[in-house]
Amino acid sequence: MLREGDLVYLLDEKGLRHWATIKKAMIRVEGLGVVDGSKLVGKESGSIISVANKTLWVLRPGTPELMESIERGPQVIGRKDAATIVQRLDLKCGDLVIEGGVGSGSLTTALLNAVRPEGKVISVELREEFAAKAKRNIMRTDLGKNWELRIGDVRTIQLGLKADAVVLDIPDPWEAVDSATMMMKGGGRFCAYVPNMNQVESTVMKLRASSFVEIDALENIQRAIEVHPGGVRPSFDVLGHTGYIVFARRTIREREANS
Ligand SMILES: C[S@@+](CC[C@H](N)C(=O)[O-])C[C@H]1O[C@@H](n2cnc3c(N)ncnc32)[C@H](O)[C@@H]1O
Fold first, then answer.
1. Ligand 1 mean position to 53 CA, how many Å?
2. Pocket of ligand 1, candidates 79, 84, 126, 147: which has the most ligand atoms within 8 Å of its Cβ, to mutate?
């Protein structure tokens, strides 16, 4: 049941989402005007409500909607790539993940959802203004409890922890492979997200020269299908390119194992 303080969206008949945090008072909702919040308290997600003669569905957002609705700054990692990253990093409740380059916190949202309620994501971000934006985006959700945000350079930072996974979305991830290695468990999973092929090459070369195995790179292509009676075909609006994703697993070198 929906309660005061819950973040919801009101879906209109055109498919537009109008966001609101529930309170037992009149709430100003962008694109709708004023909504009586007490009408939402106690409703089940998916219920129908009526506002100013408009029919709306009140829905509790999940990770896909939260990622789509964030306040954007630098280029974000979208749903299709985040889903692949979460699955390939084998993230689960209780895992510790270190993220380099938080940006707007889009990927962070997916990482936090995968490791909660017992896991943790530590995000390292170079720039204060992006950290502040990511903080706003995460703190409007209930994902913040499992999150730590550090201002710093992931290429040099040492956290004194051994993470299950390290994921980097920075321009030069190969420069962060050494610090990532130090912060990962043996068998831990590494991921780097980059928009250009030359960045893939530099990252893979560095991983091959370091203690990583099962290194592979991929591009994730997805097409939406438009469904009309008698006319079902791929959408014309194909997102041409997002990014390439490099994955690898950390091994323990003999010298390290004996030390
Ligand atoms: C493309 S954005 C990340 C977007 C993020 N993955 C998302 O889904 O919203 C890249 C971010 O990396 C940060 N960054 C670049 N180099 C960094 C470094 N060496 N250490 C930490 N953060 C870094 C930038 O300031 C920027 O916020």
1. 44
2. 126
Residue 41 per-residue DSSP state: T
Helix (H, G, I), strand (E, B) or coil at 139: helix
For the Cβ of 153 lying below 6 angstroms from any atom of ligand 1, the answer is yes
CA distance 205 to 190: 14
- pTM, entire model: 0.95
Cα(72)–Cα(74) distance, integer angstroms: 7
Q: CB within 8 A of 158, min separation 6: which ones?
A: 179, 182, 183
Q: Name the residue among 140, 143, 157, 141 with its Cα closest to residue 101.
A: 157
pLDDT in tens, the chain (259 residues): 999 999 999 999 999 999 999 999 999 998 888 999 998 999 999 999 998 888 999 999 999 999 999 998 889 999 999 999 999 999 999 999 999 999 999 999 999 999 999 999 999 999 999 999 999 999 999 999 999 999 999 999 999 999 999 999 999 999 999 999 999 999 999 999 999 999 999 999 999 999 999 999 999 999 999 999 999 999 998 888 999 999 999 999 877 777 6
At which residue do the structure tokens 């084998």 appear?
90
Cis before 117? omega within 30? yes
Looking at residue 22, the DSSP 8-state letter turns out to be -
| 94: nearest Cα among 109, 74, 114 | 114
Question: 223 φ, ψ to 5°?
Answer: -120, 130
Q: Is the CB of 99 under 6 A from ligand 1?
A: no
Angle CA 198–202–204, to nearest 5: 115
| Domains of the chain with CATH codes | 7-59 (3.10.330.20), 65-258 (3.40.50.150)
